[in-house]
Amino acid sequence: MLHIPCPHCGLRNETEFHYGAEAGVAYPEPNVLTDSEWAKYLHIRANPKGWLAERWVHFAGCGRWFNLWRNTITHEIGPAYLPFTTQPKKPDNIGQEGLKA
Amino acid sequence: MTNTHDTLSPGTIGRRRAATFPEQPPRLWKSVKPKKAYDAVIVGGGGHGLATAYYLAKNHGLTNIAVLEKGWLAGGNTARNTTIIRSNYLWDESAAIYEHSLKLWETLEEDLGYEMFFSQRGVLTLAHSVSDVRSKRRNLYANALNGIDSEWLTPAEVKKLVPIINISEDVRYPVHGATYQPRGGIAKHDWVAWGFAKAASDLGVDIIQGCEVTGFDIKNNKVQGVQTNLGSIAAGKVGMVGAGHSSLLANLAGFSIPIQSRPLQALVSPLLEQVLNTVVMSGAVHVYVSQAHKGELVMGAGTDAFNSYAQRGGFHVIEHQLAAALELFPIFSRAHVLRTWGGVVDVSPDASPIMGLTPVENLFLNCGWGTGGFKATPASGWVMAYTVAHGRPHELNQAFALDRFVTGHLIDEHGAAGVAH
Amino acid sequence: MSEISFSFDDKIYKGHQGEPMVAALLRSGMLSITTSTYHGRPRAVVGLGVEEPNALVQLVSGTKESMLPATVIEVADGLAARSLTGVGALPELPEEARYDKTNRYVDTLVIGAGLAGLKAADEHLRAGREVLLIDDQPKPGGHLRHLGLELPASLRDVLAHKSLTYLCRCTAVGLYDQNYIVAIERRSDHLGNSAPANRARIRVWHIRADQVVLAPGAFQRPLIFSNNDRPGIMLSHAAATYVAVHGVQIFKRAVVATVDNQGYRDALRLHHAGVQVQAIYDARPVAEGSSVDAARATGIPIRFRATVLDTVSDAEGVCESVIIQDLDTNETFQITADLLAISGGWTPIVDLATHIGIKPKWSEAHAAFLVNHSTDRLRTHGMLAGDFGGDDNPSIFFGPELDEEQSRHAYIDLQRDTTLHDLRRAVGAGLNSIEHIKRYTTIGTAHDQGKTSGMLTIGALCQLNGVAQGGKPGLSPADVGTLSFRPPYIPVPFAALAGRERGPLSDPIRITSLHQWHVEAGAIFEDVGQWKRPWYFPKPGECMEDAVRRECVAARQGVAMMDASTLGKIEIQGTDAAVFLDRIYTNMFSTLPEGQCRYGLMCKTDGIVFDDGVTTLLGKNHFLMTTTTGGAARVLAWLEEWLQTEWPDLKVYCTSVTEHISTIALVGPKSRQLLQELVKDIDLSNATFPFMHSREAMIDDIPVRIARISFSGELAFEINVTWGYARHIWERLWAMGRPYDLTAYGTETMHVLRAEKGYIIVGQDTDGTQTPYDLNMSWIVSKKKEFIGKRSFQLPYLKAAGRLQLVGLLSDNGDEVIPEGAYTTELNAHPDEHGKTRHTGFVTSSYYSPALGRAFALALVADGLNRMGEVVAVPFGKKVLRATICDAVFIDKENIRRD
Amino acid sequence: MIAKETPLEGMNMGTIATVAIRELSGLHSIDLRVMPGSSTQTAVVEALGIGLPVKPGQVLVASISGGSEAHALCLAPDWWLIVGFHEAEQKLAALLLENHHHFSVVDVSGQRTTIELEGPKVREVLTHLWDQDLREKSFPIASVSQGLMAKAPVIVCHIAPFRYRVMVRSSFALHLWKALVDAAGEWV
Fold first, then answer.
1. Does the pLDDT of residue C748 top 80, yes or no?
2. For residues C636-664, average pLDDT
């Protein structure tokens, strides 16, 4: 049960959120893209081992979308940030529970 | 060797000893150090990778090959799944490969000369609502046309087959019926991998553990070999069969694939007297349960919602799953959760695997099996061996090519068939 | 302590209220309490708590728990248990106990109320923090309790602190990310018959702590020698505790085999309790410390570099004498003993720490894996952190070298009956990972999850690999690594984890404002997601088919009404609302005049139909969107996602009003006449209130919004009213409708009526692979604007020829309703050599139509729109029907009836 | 006047000595959406005549005409639920017609019903079903939070000492009622 920092409501349990995969993939101008570029937008999202900037929506709370740095190996949670704001830099391992990514 | 193991259960209440396993052969496989070069290298020593190596050697005569496993052999999803085997998939393309797999399962123990506790005890897939019944029946009709054994059972027939199931109308999601595939069943997951490993090893395949691929040598868009923590290994052909880590391997080779890695959890109970001789699945309430040979209940959950490589998930997923299980099987209330664990499954957008060629010549891909890869182990190895050997897909994996995401020809198993366990 | 009676294997025993069941059994002389799982060897209790591998029982009384170690069962009056051989049984009796769950947030959670845990709690309390202290024992004190000692006064004060909550009988079973802990509190079993009926038997605690302190203590470990499983062989700490604290007097002559000073301490306790300790055999070359000195002073013979090699049993298999080996000379000798007390060192309980991925580190000095961890969030204390206290200087010794035959009886995992020989075979088979060896031998997979056997396995592998490599020392435990520990720390009943989510509470049941009316009217319900919707309303004696036909006829010929309240409803307001809807829907909404309604279809970015519904322009920049029942939450989330993450510049707000507005569909040629009797303030005639228009009106002074929307093709009105007045409106209509024979209908009739008109149900006539074109709805795809999903229509496969297209299907035999889901094939299709028959599509909806007087169906058929009039086969079961492809609209193609 | 029905029809149980659970019938409520800090928000506040709490999670209690109390609940940065203020819509009607103001007002009185819990055991009952932090320091009086209770979407308000309100979607109300009664099993 991840404890996720909603920028508006504070820390809440994972069950109040829905996951939205990689953050920062903007909706492209569809009609200038080749089929393969369009397919990339439709289907391909980053899946790194380590820190991932990803989207979450606090569906059971304030209903707002936000972005979050999270480590996919250690489940460390990094900073959250709002859409259309500057992305905080990728966190160093903050050593939560002493784990190293 | 099929269908003989279930009779071990006395089926009566009373103290009994647990069933035992037969003795293992004196040697399973040789652990070796990598050579400088191979004709083909398979990256990933799970069930699929080992099966690929075995069929490359057996069907295609390629024996100068190596399987590279970064951890311990078959320690990934092969060791972590709930071992359900069935072929009653909705879409023709899926049905074809899973049925091919089931046919291979039916002779696999003889073929490999190795016992795997493959037990065709039947798989029940429950329907809990009017729309659930509709889609399950469609599945049934599709199976009939594809030559796959599948029957429709009424709630009373379900009860007859699995007496401990609660078919009362009063439960939150009552049983409205079920599809039943009698040829479906389970096998002992570790032994399946070990069987392939032993057979491949016996045919001269090098099995190399603790060997992590850190890069690909690619020249003129053609793969030349792999870099590993144990040094560079030249290879004429490379198959990527890395399950949860597929997208990382693809990135190392310079391309992206539509894969997200998710935790998938499962659990097991202590040994119990036999109460369940059939595999029971319910996508609607997230229950996948069988009782293994020795007597433990083995249950699968759904995937956790987020990407993770941690091989663990949230406990709420387990709690929810048990609540659902007790609605169906009140008798389980006194069973215990002994152990929970998680795997890393690679999920594709249409919940179907991705198999075949990649943008890099002589580099082949097999991934995206999501929650359902165990049952496909033999066929996956079979068609990947063909693909690696011939440099083109087998007819059974043609439809599962990477380019389907560009053409739009998805094989959407979660749209209609529910969860692909 | 009051004396009580309990039964074990149908015999009555006396015990002290609250003492461990094994203590009472041992005191009664009951030593061998079961036989082993596979080998059938007699077995007795070995340990003190959850690490116990042998003494498994099933409760026959109370909740009939399927499997528990008798070491953790507190005896109470009326308790009844029976022995198990490692295989539990599930009684087919209803579970009547209550289970519950609770959530707790706390500054500091301390796990373990031994000395280390209590001291940590004290520190945190002094720092002004709130502390939750949980411990799996009935009383605090940890090892002190096993020594029969009271807590020092200072620690009693800790327990009394106002900022401390102490939960006994509460076991932390899992440590999860961000300091989330699941703990299991046993609340009533120890009370026996006097437990209150409404008391939850087990409470699951979901704890989130800013800081977690792990002070779980350690298990004593056994040694590996031949016949090390015999009754009479016990961990020394357990033996001494049963004898010295619980008054067990069945042992006369003891031998202690040790690798650390704990063996001396326990030897002293046995000695002081009157057991004749014949000797202490210490595998170490030398030992120092106060306990060693004290043992010497009592005159107990001590022999170094000696350990136990084998045991000899009596006819019952009980330990009678012990064979000791001199480790330097390999000489052996035999000594009689009815108690062999083993002290193989300590194994700190690393389980919880490893749950979140912390790797324990091997410490040579402690001969143990430790987790020495100190961060802001998580700290380890006590033995886990290496604070073994006392004067210990343990040796890394797991047992003497054993030959082939001896290894066959040298048990590593008592529950699984796995021996050193099994390990040898595994290593010989080429396995070198401890995970492989575990899987090959099944060591560590039983009820105790290897609490005592795990470390023995590691030790044995070190030895075996040493031998294999032709010299000593072989591997260090650090090279082998630990087995992975997974939650839960102890087995947890399914029932506890299901908690309150049983029966009707297992998943929410959603009901509409009219639900109670439907119940009273005898409706049969269907589950649609979490909703209960009336499926049909049978009159007495009617079957479903009868009821549905009657309801259909009423709607087409008279007037009928249904509860459509489950449809999702979303208010969409703002100056950009129309622009927004144009992007969301495939068709145009910016051209919709005020007061009018329009059907819309939405796709996902992949071009696949996702939801549909009617949207009304209520006023300037103010829309009311309806969605499918199942799609309500999905669609609102979809709208919000685009607004928030792609188009924040659009001035649009969306608000769900699904429950605020109840919807009653009044359908049929007589609906206008009936409704007009209730609606006085507006004229319902077609001229002033045309199709797809919406009007505000009053019924009995209640404001309603009426829309001329028809999902049946009939003249129909949708009456929208706030939840609290819905039942009044419904009942008024019902009363007024009596002369019209107003008929209530359910979802099945709704499906028939809409299918007769070729109206799709997303999710039934689509399966997640259809574009609007496939549904013969090119008319709804705007060419003039961009919208979500449009680009994907250009993908090769989505515009390819031969796609499945929605058509009608009429079977030759009009009485036969084709099964939904059945596939179509060419007329002369036959199975190929693989037994496969090519199909051309499938039936999505199929009903008997009273209006048509025959059965009809909708189907998705390859290239179906170009194959009108062609005959296809529909095989199912043993039957093959013939059916003709036709237009999907079966009734009133000219749309005359709706006005 | 025709009586308005409520999802729980004024059901109540328990006792204030441990915990009392009752439906509060007929609370009027509107959803207000407006950009925080905008001139429109200023205009809305002025028209309403009551303030709006600034941060999600805050509740502002305002006296309104007739001596009754209205509660303004901040649910998200641009989202308020205003409870017990019948004239709110009317007060904002004129403003809605002004083109340059972007905000929305929706009557949602029927969307939810309110269950009030009161008594010394109230927190114990709630913590059985509510996985959010109810400690005074995290959720003091005049706090509000949205979440899931027994899987039903709810808004929880801390109204007064040992008194909480749970606003639940009407379709889930009976389910939640049963869950609360079950959770209170050891006290009522």
1. yes
2. 97
Q: CA of B371: how far to CAs of B78, B265, B301, B352, D103, in Å? A: 11, 10, 10, 10, 45
Domains of chain C (ranges; CATH) run: 3-83 (3.10.20.440), 99-215 (3.50.50.60), 401-486 (1.10.10), 545-566+662-766 (3.30.1360.120), 571-656 (3.30.70.1400), 801-899 (2.40.30.110)
The whole-angstrom separation of Cα C454 and Cα C223 is 12
Interface of C with A (CB under 8 A): 176-180, 206, 208, 356-358, 373, 375, 377-378, 605-606, 637, 640-641, 644-646, 648, 786, 790-792, 794-796
pLDDT-derived band at C834, boundaries 50, 70, 90: confident
Domain range enclosing A56: 3-81
C772-831 pLDDT, tens digit per residue, is 999 999 999 999 999 999 999 999 999 999 999 999 999 999 999 999 999 999 998 999
Contacts of D146 in chain A (CB under 8 A): 9, 60-62
ipTM rounded to 2 decimals: 0.95
Buried b (16+ CB within 10 A) or exposed e, C564-579: bbbbbbbbbbbebbbb
D12-26+111-187: CATH topology: Gyrase A; domain 2 (3.30.1360)
CA D49 to chain A, closest CA, distance in angstroms equals: 25
Residues in Cβ contact with C826 at an 8 Å cutoff, skipping those fewer than 6 apart: C838, C840, C872, C873
DSSP for C106-132 reads: EEEEEE--SHHHHHHHHHHHHTT--EE
Give the model confidence (pLDDT) of D69-86 as tens digits: 999 999 999 999 999 999
Question: Which tokens sit at C428?
Answer: 């010989």
Tell me, letter by letter, the H, E, C secondary structure of C290-329: HHHHHHHHHCCCEEECEEEEEEEECCCCCEEEEEEEECCC
Average pLDDT of the residues of chain C: 95
Chain B residues in contact with A40 by the CB 8 A cut-off are: 256
Helix (H) or strand (E) holding C103: strand C98-111
Q: What is the pLDDT of residue C152?
A: 92
Residue to substitute from C103, C533, C696, interface D, most D β-carbons within 10 A: C103
Exposed, middle or buried: residue C342 (CB in 10 Å: 0-12, 13-18, 19+)? buried
Any idea where the domains of chain D sit in the sequence?
Answer: 12-26+111-187, 29-107
**Which pLDDT belongs to residue C467?**
52
Contact C358 A98 (CB under 8 A): yes
Could you tell me how many residues make up chain A?
101
What CATH number does domain D29-107 carry, 3.40.30.50, 3.30.70.1520, 3.40.630.10, 3.40.190.120? 3.30.70.1520
Contact at 8 Å (CB) between C46 and C36? no
B224: distance to nearest CA of chain C, Å?
A: 31
**Number of domains within chain A:** 1
Q: Which amino acid is at C835?
A: G
pLDDT at C95: 81
Cβ–Cβ contact A30 with C under 8 A = yes
Weakest-pLDDT range from B370-384, C332-346, C619-633, D83-97: D83-97
pLDDT band at C93 (very low <50, low <70, confident <90, very high): confident
Q: Does a structural domain hold residue A49?
A: yes
Nearest to C222 by CA among C448, C537, C375: C448
The arithmetic mean of pLDDT across residues C9-36, rounded, is 95
Count CB-CB contacts under 10 A for residue C865: 17
Contact C105 D138 (CB under 8 A): yes
Q: Which residues of C touch B190 (CB under 8 A)?
A: 439-440
Mean pLDDT (whole number) for C856-879: 96
Tell me whether residues C798 and B408 touch, CB distance under 8 A: yes
pLDDT above 80 (res B417)? no
Looking at residue A97, its pLDDT comes to 46
